[in-house]
Amino acid sequence: MDRNVIAKIRLYVEHALGQGQSVPVSREQAHYLFGVMRLGVGAQVLLFDGQNGEWRAEVVEAGKRGGTLVVSEQTKPLQMPPDLWLIFAPIKKARTDFIVEKSVEMGVSRILPVQTDFTNAGRIQRDRLQAHAVEAAEQCGASYVPDVAEMVRLDRLLADWDKSRQIMFCDEAKVASKPTLPALASPWAVLIGPEGGFSPAERDRLQRLTHAHPVSLGPRILRADTAAVAALTLWQHQLGDWQ
Ligand code: SAH
């Protein structure tokens, strides 16, 4: 394997990075780096810790159950995603994983699963979803990993809401209208409903909130996972870091 390919391996580590820092390799990472990818002493990898940007590191010890990396130089400063949250109602497992993965690629700062009146999934495995967020950040070049919150009820979340954060309420009832987003420079959250959509009570409540803006995602009803990607694209294009 040539050096460039090797240097493309990016790993998230829960260890503050800095010049000369020695970073222990976990059992799982050792399996991946030294077992699957066959890296040996002297190989280069890229590391990020979610706070200090991306750094080049060299393998100085490679074992079956662990090893050590030593950080040499910074390759990228920390690049924060916009202050955009994704609120979504979990659907089937694979589609929920997809939503988490794609929202990290699209650039969100926080992921909040919510239970709505018509939510299909009663529980989520937060740790598994967080691991998906880490994997997505590793592969898409992000230097920040959005936090996946514990699932809460939508009404609770709205009751405790900081009103300075606008909500892009993706409302399937607006399917016939043109997608428009108010050009408000503030923190935002995109809200996507479950396969069953929002209940009349939820829609009524959201419509009465001055900080929630009902938005159409075009003339067809999208599945929740597609809707999440489409909504984030629209937001990033108009208000986010795609501009
Ligand atoms: N079962 C519902 C559709 C739910 S689609 C129905 O038939 O009406 C899942 C979620 O995706 C919705 O709650 C909404 O948040 C979003 N969504 C899908 N298509 C949309 C559209 N055209 N406009 C706005 N939001 C949409």
Description:
By secondary structure, the chain is an alpha/beta fold. The protein is elongated and about 60 Å long. The chain has 7 helices and 12 strands. The strands form 2 sheets. Strands 6, 7, 8, 9, 10, 11 and 12 form a 7-stranded parallel sheet that branches. A 5-stranded mixed sheet has the order 1-3-4-5-2. The protein binds S-adenosyl-L-homocysteine (SAH).
**Gap between N and C termini, in Å?**
37 Å
CATH superfamily of the largest domain: SPOUT methyltransferase, trefoil knot domain
Structural class: alpha/beta
Largest sheet: 7 strands, parallel
Cα-based radius of gyration, to the nearest Å: 20 Å
β-strand percent reads 15-25%
> Which hetero ligands occur in this complex?
S-adenosyl-L-homocysteine
Quick one: how many beta strands?
Answer: 12
How do the SSEs run, as a string of H and E? HEEHEEEEHEHEEHEEHEH
- Per DSSP, the total helix count is 7
| Helix content percent band | 25-40%
